[in-house]
Task: structure prediction
Amino acid sequence: MHLIYEASRPLARVLIHLLCCYRVVRHDNPSCPGIPEGPLVVVANHLHALDPLLVGFCMRRRIAFMAKEELFGSFFARSMLHAYGAFPISRGNSDREAMRMVRERMRQGWALGMFPEGTRSISGGLQRAYPGVALIALRNDAYILPVAVEGSEKIRGGVHLFTNLHRRPKVTIHIGEPFKLPYAGGRSNHRQLSELTDYIMRQLALLLPDSYCGVYREDSK
Result:
């Protein structure tokens, strides 16, 4: 699995630069040690089907993304997703198998990739997030790394791939500063998890222009 992930990175680099003008901007503290080792949850907004590739490409650590179970329907898709460390999740439901896979991937050294909104944003603005991201971070004592995607909704493939090379959209990946959630002890209730999730999303909104902040626009000010 690790071999396929690493061997595909040169191909991913070519594909990304064919589709867009790609750049990475870091917003962390210069004194910060960078992306931490150990349990790590990478949270990002979701604008395009290629966002996992765009986010994963800017990281030195391997990222296993949680993906909606519908994507695992065909044998080919299931094989490729598993090769890249991805695993299915039943959105909106408590999924013990997914939680087990989270622990397993982290034990293997992967970072966990999550789109807390649960689906792509049609408007481009942040949508209200599901509280699962806070639950996972707390249960695994994981750092959270906000990574904001700007401009990927403008990517066009298919027949446009080669005809629009001179007009490739600008895509910027903003990498924030890793942080941990406060742990109060005991089991967190739904309200507490929702508040912590909103806090995570506000850190993501701080990395984005106002037009992308959506429901967290006022929260991020």
User: Anything to note?
Assistant: The chain has one domain: 2-216. The mean pLDDT is 83.
